[in-house]
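Model it.
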Amino acid sequence: MIEGHTAQVVESNFPQFSVGAQYVLFLRYDPLEKLFVVPYGGQGSFAIENGYVRQLKGDFAATSGKVTAAGFTLMIAQRIRPPVQE
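Modeled.
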């Protein structure tokens, strides 16, 4: 359950989620299937461990280094907000 909603994920060669752990999942709604999917498989899934973000499957650490949860939030916000025009 995620905030009262049932989540079912099937991904081969993917680590199982741990009860009580914190995760960030980037979801995209599929209107044909009427469900949410994690785009790009495991690359859209991150664990928060000891205040740091770890991509569950992919090379985020290799390209971004060790990133705090607050830093990760800032990175996302900068990428989804349009730049301020002067």
